[in-house]
């Protein structure tokens, strides 16, 4: 019996992924306006709960803007990529990166979101970044909206709840597509678009306490994001025929807790609730199973004539997603729970967990890749995967992060198996190749990088960069196209 020797394809896009709000800093420089991320407060670990939803209230915003709040907002500082991008990109190039995912901070280009003309200083900054990447033949992979809704749109329309935000987003997309059509071919519209239903302010600049029916507001805002994504895809194909547009999902692979058919049904429903987002993006229509969910939750989505036709006519070119862990579903969810990406879950006794309680499931990645490819038959792109951990700097400055190497190695092995299964996988972008501010908690101590950044949770440090053991390991992985792990 012959055996398939799985290999990563030639031209596989090895690299790493970041977000503007977690790395750039310079939140008020060169004409940039405030965004949703600029209001996210640092929460010390002792004060966090397992159900921390990263939500911001109108009162928190009022206190921040008036100066009454004493909270720190670490995403305003980031790791100063804004001034250090040349140094940072040189480190990525030293590892041999083929691709680097970053986001454009929408409020650098249109400070309020609804401005008539773009901010030239913001456009020039990303020109400089893309030129620096081109110097090393690193392909930029650019997210248009990565938890960075301009605060002006929150003030004026309560973010994505207002249909007007669609037109402002499409103008922003058209502006950057036109400006960077010779420099960027891979785009994504909304990072982890399912976030708007979990943390509406993070995912869509929506203040839930301003809404009579917060649940309905979430799904109305989501519908507007779907339409905006389709219209942006249309614009990209018109402006740059070589351009490829992807959607981006936080993939929540869910297993039944037991063979009990009730648990199996619950897991199926939870998986549908997660795949709903990519169903609309990739298939161009709301799936039938959502009709029952919307009806049972008394949600009527206001659609304009033509919305459904727009979704159908302009689906995405590829499906990208983040994968960190798997979840368990139970019809009677009793038992010990643990934290995870965006939500907590029942503990899986067959899996280890990170220091933050995220369950480590490399085989689950192979399962997710096969499920997504079977479902959509579109190229897949794993644009986030990594291990958040505490790193110790030794007396000689070295950082021995074997735990990170082990995590990544096991996930890369399973990607290779999925390619052997027939999955069309475009690339692998490890999350946070340079230590950055945590999305959910605004910590620095939860580190993902191959490169260490000297900064602590309280904002102290030199910001000096140094190479971890994983830096040299990942360089070998890329250099061997995934053969040397």
Please name the defining characteristics of this protein.
two-stranded parallel ribbon, TIM Barrel, 16 strands, hydrolase, Glyco_hydro_1, EC 3.2.1.86, 485 residues, Glyco_hydro_1_AS, alpha/beta
Question: Your description of this structure?
Answer:
With 485 residues, this protein is an alpha/beta fold. The protein has one domain (13-479): TIM Barrel. Helices cover 38% and strands 14% of the residues. The chain contains 15 helices and 16 strands. The strands form five sheets. An eight-stranded parallel barrel has the order 1-2-3-4-5-7-13-14, surrounded by five helices. Strand 13 (380-384), helix 14 and strand 14 (425-431) form a beta-alpha-beta unit. The longest helix is centred in the middle third of the chain and has 26 residues, at 214-239. The protein is globular, with a radius of gyration of 21 Å.
Short synopsis of the structure:
The protein has helices spanning 20-23, 58-66, 81-95, 106-109, 120-135, 151-157, 164-179, 200-204, 214-239, 261-283, 289-296, 307-313, 362-376, 402-420, 469-479; strands spanning 13-17, 99-103, 139-145, 186-190, 244-250, 253-256, 318-322, 326-329, 337-338, 345-346, 352-353, 359-360, 380-384, 425-431, 451-453, 465-467. It has 485 residues and is α/β, with parallel strands linked by helices. The strands form 5 sheets. The chain has an 8-stranded parallel beta barrel with strand order 1-2-3-4-5-7-13-14, surrounded by 5 helices. Strands 6-8 form a two-stranded parallel ribbon.
């Amino acid at each position: 019996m012959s055996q398939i020797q799985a290999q990563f394809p030639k031209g596989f896009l090895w690299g790493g992924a970041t977000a503007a709000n977690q790395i750039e800093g310079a939140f008020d420089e060169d004409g940039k306006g405030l965004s949703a991320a600029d209001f996210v407060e640092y929460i010390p670990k002792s004060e966090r709960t397992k159900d921390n939803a990263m939500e911001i209230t109108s009162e928190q915003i009022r206190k921040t803007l008036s100066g009454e709040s004493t909270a720190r907002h670490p995403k305003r500082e980031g790791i100063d990529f804004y001034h250090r991008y040349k140094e940072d990109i040189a480190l990525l190039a030293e590892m041999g990166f083929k691709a680097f995912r970053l986001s454009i901070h929408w409020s650098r280009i249109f400070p309020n979101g609804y401005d008539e003309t773009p901010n030239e200083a913001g456009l020039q900054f990303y020109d400089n970044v893309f030129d620096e990447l081109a110097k090393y033949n690193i392909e930029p992979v650019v997210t248009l909206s990565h938890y960075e809704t301009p605060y002006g749109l929150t003030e004026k329309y309560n973010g994505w709840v207002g249909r007007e935000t669609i037109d402002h987003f499409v103008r922003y997309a058209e502006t950057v597509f036109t400006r960077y059509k010779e420099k960027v071919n891979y785009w994504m519209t909304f990072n982890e678009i399912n976030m708007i239903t979990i943390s509406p302010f993070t995912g869509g600049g929506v203040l839930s306490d301003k809404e009579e029916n917060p649940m309905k507001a979430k799904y109305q805002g989501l519908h507007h994001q779907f339409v905006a994504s389709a219209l942006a895809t249309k614009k990209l194909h018109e402006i740059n025929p070589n351009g490829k547009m992807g959607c981006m999902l936080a993939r929540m692979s869910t297993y039944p807790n037991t063979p009990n058919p009730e648990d199996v049904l619950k897991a199926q429903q939870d998986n549908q609730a997660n795949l709903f987002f990519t169903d609309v993006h990739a298939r161009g229509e709301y799936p039938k199973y959502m009709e029952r969910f919307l009806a049972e939750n008394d949600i009527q989505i206001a659609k304009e004539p033509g919305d459904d036709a727009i979704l159908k006519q302009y689906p995405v070119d590829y499906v990208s997603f983040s994968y960190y862990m798997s979840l368990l579903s139970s019809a009677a969810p009793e038992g010990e729970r643990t934290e995870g990406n965006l939500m907590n879950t029942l503990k899986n006794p067959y899996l280890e967990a990170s220091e933050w309680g995220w369950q480590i499931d490399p085989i689950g990645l192979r399962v997710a890749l096969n499920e997504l490819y079977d479902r959509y038959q579109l190229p897949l792109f794993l644009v986030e995967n990594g291990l958040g951990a505490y790193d110790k700097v030794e007396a000689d400055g070295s950082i021995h992060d074997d735990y990170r190497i082990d995590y990544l190695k096991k996930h890369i092995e399973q990607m290779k198996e999925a390619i052997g299964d027939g999955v069309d996988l475009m690339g692998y972008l490890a999350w946070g190749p340079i230590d950055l501010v945590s999305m959910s908690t605004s910590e620095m101590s939860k580190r993902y990088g191959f490169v260490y950044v000297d900064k602590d949770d309280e904002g102290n440090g030199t910001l000096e960069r140094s190479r971890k053991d994983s830096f040299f390991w990942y360089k070998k992985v890329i250099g061997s196209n995934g053969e040397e792990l």
